Amino acid sequence: MDTGMITSATPTPTSATTATTASNSISQDAFLQLLVAQLKNQDPTSASSQDPSQMIQQLTAFSSLQQATQTNTLLQGLQTQNQALFQAQAAALIGKTVKVDGSGFQVQGGKASTLGLDLSAAANVTATITDSQGNVVATLPEGNLAAGNQAITWNGLDSKGNPVPDGNYKVTLTATGSDGTPVPFTTNLTLKVDSVAFNSDGSISLTANGNTFSLSDVLQVLG
């Protein structure tokens, strides 16, 4: 029976043959040590030594490698500073109202949020609202809307005039021109940022009214 306890054991000696795998590459430190040792033990003025031009090439290689190392260190430092700057800017968004890329309605206390709509041309717009189970809750015939920024509002009532439960609702929009062809559009949400999270992969996410979105989704900070 396995008790799940950890016990100590003495390993049994075994004979093994260790194979050495040759490598055609060396580390940066090893290269520097080899190059310095070579420079110390050669006389570029001696006829029996290597060509002085090769000495110059080695010195140039040493200088180039040193500059590349310093450049990499500097770039890493700048990356760290930029990440800290981005995090500080993101943290300052807590309590701010932002416009983000997305769609949907959020109902709280019987009141629904507003959905922003940006039409590329004048169009006849209809909004279909569904709940988390995919059931159609209400249909909003917005009618003909002009090109540009528009606002889609909902009174939080279903198709029978009853208040819907608080929560998040999906919106499907259709926009067609006078000739019946689809009109391109984008949607956005206006939310108040509640918290900011710094993820292990370096990305930054924001939470507002129970919704989580990426910092890259922010279109505008309204204040």
Q: How would you briefly describe this protein structure?
A:
With 223 residues, this protein is an alpha+beta fold.
Task: Tell me about this structure.
This protein is α+β, with helices and mostly antiparallel strands. It has a domain at 97-221: Immunoglobulin-like (Sandwich). The protein contains two helices and 13 strands; from the N terminus they run H-H-E-E-E-E-E-E-E-E-E-E-E-E-E. It has helices at 28-40, 52-91; strands at residues 97-101, 105-108, 111-112, 115-119, 123-130, 136-145, 148-152, 167-176, 185-192, 195-198, 204-208, 211-214, 218-221. A hairpin with a 5-residue loop joins strand 10 and strand 11. The relative contact order is 0.16.
List the helices and strands and how they pair.
Elements: H1 28-40, H2 52-91, E1 97-101, E2 105-108, E3 111-112, E4 115-119, E5 123-130, E6 136-145, E7 148-152, E8 167-176, E9 185-192, E10 195-198, E11 204-208, E12 211-214, E13 218-221
Antiparallel strand pairs: 1-9, 1-13, 2-3, 2-8, 4-7, 4-9, 5-6, 5-8, 10-11, 11-12
